[in-house]
Description:
It is a single chain. The chain is built from nine helices and 20 strands. The chain is of the alpha+beta class. The chain folds into three domains: 66 residues, Uridine Diphospho-n-acetylenolpyruvylglucosamine Reductase, domain 2 (2-Layer Sandwich), CATH 3.30.43.10; 113 residues, Uridine Diphospho-n-acetylenolpyruvylglucosamine Reductase, domain 3; 104 residues, Alpha-Beta Complex (Uridine Diphospho-n-acetylenolpyruvylglucosamine Reductase, domain 1). Strand 18 and strand 19 form a beta hairpin.
Amino acid sequence: MEIKYNISLKPYNTFGIDAEAKAFVSIAAEDSLTEAVSLIPEKEPLLVLGGGSNVLFTRHFNGWVLKNEIPGIEVKKENENNIWVEAGAGVNWHQFVLYCIEKGWAGLENLSLIPGCVGASPMQNIGAYGVEIKDVFEYLEAYSLHEKTFVTFSATDCKFGYRESVFKKELKNRFVITRVCFRLSKKPFFHTTYGSIQQELETMGVTELTIKAISDAVIRIRQGKLPDPAVTGNAGSFFKNPEIDTNHYLELKYRYPELPGYPASMGRTKVPAGWLIEKAGWKGYREGDAGVHDRQALVLVNYGQANGEQIYAISEKIMNSVLEKFGVELEREVNIY
C-alpha cells in the first residue's frame, strides 16, 4: 500500500478542480482499507472518494483521501425470477449497468450513464427516469471507522429518501461502503413513461422493447443534454429537485402555467430545479471559466480553469435568485468540501 502526500485531486474529481490532499491512498481490498484506516492519525479529516462525480472542492483537503477501488462482480444467489448480484464499491457504475444488461438482468437500465462508482449509488440513492437504487437494493457491506468492524446494512437500515440515505445524514463520514448487492429481475418490467424515454425509443425506431433498448435511449438522452465530464468539468445535477407544498405549487402554476410538477409525499409536489433555474435566467450564464451549462440549467460547469470557490459562488447566486423569484429553496446535491 502506497501513501502519497500533497497530491493533486484534479484527476480524481469530475469537476476537474485542482485541490490538494494532505495524504492519498488507493484501496483495492478490505484488508488494505483496514490497514490504511489504522494509519490515519486520530481526528485527522478523512474523505472516501469513488468516481469523484458528486464532489466540489472549494479548498485544499487537509486530511487523508481514500480512493475506493474495490473491484469484483459476483452472483450471490438466484431463483426463477430474480438474481442477486454483488459488486465492489470501486466498480464503475455505468460499466456495471452495461454488464448486467449484457447478462439479461433487468432493473438498472434506466440508470445508465450515471457517473461514479457502485459504492456511491446507495449513499446518494441515485435515480433517473422513474427508477431509484432503493427499488433494486438488497444490502451493502461497510466498514465502521469508529468500531473498526464490518457491518451489513439492509434497505431499512439505509433509510433511503430522495437522493438521501443514512450515510448522508446521521452516519455521515462514519462508514466506508465496500460492497453492494442488488436484486435484479430475469423477467423485466419496463419503465418508459418517465421523461422522454418513449419518445426517444420511437425516434430510434425500436419495435421490440428490451432492457438494452431502454439503456440505449437513456444514454442518447443524457448525452444530448448533459456535458461529458472528460470534456467539460461537471458533477451532473448540482441541485436536487425541490419538493414544495402543493398549495405553493398551485400558486406558482397559476403564474407559470407551463411549470411541471410531480406528486411527492403527502401534500407536496416535486418541481424541476432545472426549470426554476432556467426561468430565473441562469441557463448559459458564465463568469470566467465557471458557469451554468447552456443545454441543462441544472448542471454547473468548469470550462477549464475555474476553482471550486467560483463554482460555489455561482450556486449561491442561483439559490438566492430562485428563492427570491419563486419562494423555493434549492438544496445542493453535490457534496461541498
